[in-house]
Amino acid sequence: MGQYVIGIDAGGTMTKAALFDMDGVEIACAHSRNVMQAPHPGWTERDPEEMWQAATLAVRQVIECSGVSPSDIEAVSVAGYGGGLYLMDRDGHSVRAGIMSTDARAVDIIAEWQSNGTADQVEALIGQHLWPGQTIVLLTWLVRNEPGVFDRTHSVSFCKDFLRAQLCGDMSTDLTDAGSAGLLDPETDTYCDALFDLLGLAHLRDKLPELGPSDQVVGGVTAKAAALTGLQEGTPVVRGTVDMSAAALASHITEPGQMSVVAGTFSIAATLNRTPRRSYVPMLQFPYPLGGYMAVEGSPTSASNLEWVVKTVLTQGCPLPDEGFSDIYERLNQALARRLGKPGTALFFPFLFGGPNGAPAGLLGMTAQSNFDDMAIAIFEGIVFAHKLDIDKVLSGDDAAPVDLIRLTGGATRSPYWSELFADILGLPIEVPKGSEFGALGVAICAAAAIGAYPSLADAVAGMTGIARRHTCNADRRAAHIAKFPRFVAMTNAMAAIPAAPLVAETEAFHA
């Protein structure tokens, strides 16, 4: 096939654009950094117009570096982080700063709801846990604290949908974003009117976006957007999907026996179920574009913790050229290779960005005889243990879909030894999909299906994804590593039970 599609992925730190052919081969990729704003403690915001500028720059760069003519680009689609909140006026302009999913301004509202029983009612209605950066919680906070903002609001929106509105004017959303936002009734896949009535938000019901399929053309690139991006005016724009769903599509998650695990900034474990989970309430769940429901658990306990150790401890916070970082990562990788199946006694708790029930980060069990390899295997092993905590949660309950295969994406897959450690500790085969920009590929797949390059979305997934390598569990190595897991859990729980010491001074945190 001689046509191309572009996928845009707006994440927490970067907005990326990638160009793919119709076989899913990545032709070019470009990225532009997003700037996070923190106007008050616990707030994390983003200027939506600056995010749009970052997206236009990334798209323009990917077209220029690929050498592909804009006339050969058949469609474009967008993925973005779930939760958070963007508000648009009738012209698609933002009416306030966008709120990110990491925002914590609404923690007191959740505490209030937990104390008066509202939380149980809400979670029963939406089939997922409440969390501070969830859209339904943020809407409540804005009604209480910035009610005037809704006088200027035409549409409640999400990250990907704000960008798509700038591309073509369409302000709708798809079921994956609306579901992860906590706005849907999982039994009907429609907005939950009972939820809005319960929370006193019924007056916002007409500001919710229209719902539609992820793989549907919703407009064409406007003249203004074409001038900014380099795309051809009229290029079809496809609705797209939330980033977790996009990564699952790009990982060829098509059946309930398969789990998508992302080991990057966050640990994410997602399972596909034929019906919404009810025996266990997950952190998130939403309708999957291929049918069924995706249940998700996640925490900031993954590879970003390794990156922090490298930048803040092993290199003493000093910036190094790229080859310097490659050298230290290669040293760590070789240490891991030497110690697979031969763990020491040390345990690493990868909770630098937040741990279970407030458990702190730490490296425990080192002695004067410990060496670099002991520290390295503890770090890699501890991060996989933290993933296992999330995986065990999403697999709990009577209606959990049994899993016999994990598809692993994210920074951890750069090391085949670390991927092997995942297989050994989790006790399941690990497949690493082809590619690197899975959010962008997932919505590129949606775009290809929407324009008829494939008969269906399922066919597009089959035609545009593949497996780069497979790792299987080694029973002897598994026994050596998994023997430490009960102690990891016990010490995590013990540390979480100890009240945190008050901060005496603010420090600048590294944000992966």
Automatic annotation (TrEMBL):
Gene3D superfamilies, per database record: 3.30.420.40
Residues covered by the Carbohydrate kinase FGGY C-terminal domain: 260-450
An example molecular function term from Gene Ontology annotations: kinase activity
Keyword Cytoplasm applies: no
Annotated signal peptide: none
GO BP terms in the entry: carbohydrate metabolic process
InterPro entries (alphabetical): ATPase_NBD (IPR043129), Carb_kinase_FGGY (IPR000577), FGGY_C (IPR018485), FGGY_Carb_Kinase (IPR050406), FGGY_N (IPR018484)
Stated family: Belongs to the FGGY kinase family.
Protein name: L-xylulokinase
Organism, as annotated: Celeribacter baekdonensis
